[in-house]
Design goal:
Blueprint lengths: L1 H51 L1 E2 L7 E2 L3 H6 L3 H31 L5 H11 L6 H11 L6 H8 L13 H29 L3 H9 L4 H12 L1 H16 L3 H6 L11 H10 L4 H31 L1
Helix pairs in contact: 1-13, 3-7, 3-10, 3-12, 5-7, 7-10, 8-9, 10-13, 12-13
């Protein structure tokens, strides 16, 4: 017993020494990530907050104004209009993406060659850049020369000389359709991964108990997919709140400024009006909105873990 007691402390000391060495190694290996985070997120964030508290012209000396830029934002008709349109775009786009993602995921959830083929087909637009996709759809719907307008014109469904981007309804619908075509493949894969993670034994037990396919889907599959649904929801909402490229390219904010998003307004304030301080304040407000979205995501995930 005495020999065992004498052998134990060196063993523990050696184990603790190995643990400390691994901890230091982990800190060294993670140091580049911390440096990059500090350089490209923490420091720009601090600078943005500082700039938002100043009247900061692109040229000239900044002047400290406190929270004036934030108060101005809530009284700025252009920003409020842009925020309202961004909210409308989010409310319209998010349900479309989630519903289509679920439908496509259930259609291609099998493991056959045909299912894998359609998985690839639906995912292909995801690899195309958003700017490239916007230019493609802009060309497709150009009056007189766009393939879509020519085809629909030959079928007698539309006037081929019509400028679809000169009307809010048609311009908005085309942009929503383009974003859905571009993004839904990724959402489908996320939902598909969640569906494949549901144990088949659970569905078999439900069928044995007499549950219909709809009851099995609604009462078993959907609750088990809550973390996946939360992830898809946050991706969709965050992407919609940050929408810029598609409207800048396809509508340039028109007609009459009706399709200017929050990020578009930030761009105009900073790089068209050269009011960098005000643009920084708008950026902080948008970041806070995204923070709320992240908090909702964590709440959904926590509730799913507790259920």
């Amino acid at each position: 017993m005495t020999a065992l007691q004498q052998a134990t402390p060196p063993t523990r000391t050696r184990t603790d020494r190995i643990a400390r060495r691994r901890g230091r190694l982990g800190l060294v290996l993670s140091l580049p990530a911390f440096v990059l985070l500090a350089l490209f997120f923490v420091w720009p964030l601090i600078r943005t907050v500082v700039m938002s508290l100043h009247d900061w012209p692109l040229l000239g000396e900044p002047e400290f104004t406190g929270l004036d830029n934030y108060f101005t934002a809530f009284q700025d008709a252009n920003f409020l209009r842009a925020a309202g349109f961004t909210l409308l775009y989010t409310v319209v786009t998010t349900p479309i993406l989630i519903i289509l993602a679920f439908l496509l995921a259930f259609l291609v959830r099998g493991g056959t060659r045909a299912h894998r083929f359609f998985q690839t087909i639906y995912f292909l637009p995801v690899v195309i850049g958003l700017a490239s996709g916007s230019y493609i759809w802009l060309f497709m719907w150009q009056s007189d020369i766009g393939p879509t307008t020519i085809l629909l014109g030959n079928l007698g469904l539309v006037d081929p000389t019509r400028n679809f981007f000169a009307e809010f309804g048609s311009a908005f619908a085309i942009v929503v359709a383009m974003v859905t075509w571009k993004v839904v493949g990724l959402q489908m894969l996320l939902v598909l991964a969640g569906i494949q993670g549901v144990p088949e034994e659970v569905n078999e037990a439900a069928r044995i108990d007499g549950a219909s396919p709809w009851q099995s889907f609604w009462h078993i599959t959907v609750p088990l997919l809550r973390p996946t649904l939360a992830l898809v929801l946050v991706f969709s909402v965050a992407g919609s709140l940050l929408a810029f490229d598609q409207f800048y390219i396809m509508t340039t904010g028109g007609p009459a400024g009706s399709t200017i998003t929050a990020v578009f307004e930030i761009y105009r304030s900073g790089f068209v009006k050269f009011d960098v301080g005000y643009a920084s304040a708008l950026s902080i407000l948008l970041m806070l909105a995204l923070g709320v979205v992240s908090a909702v995501q964590m709440l959904l995930l926590r509730n799913s873990d507790n259920s």
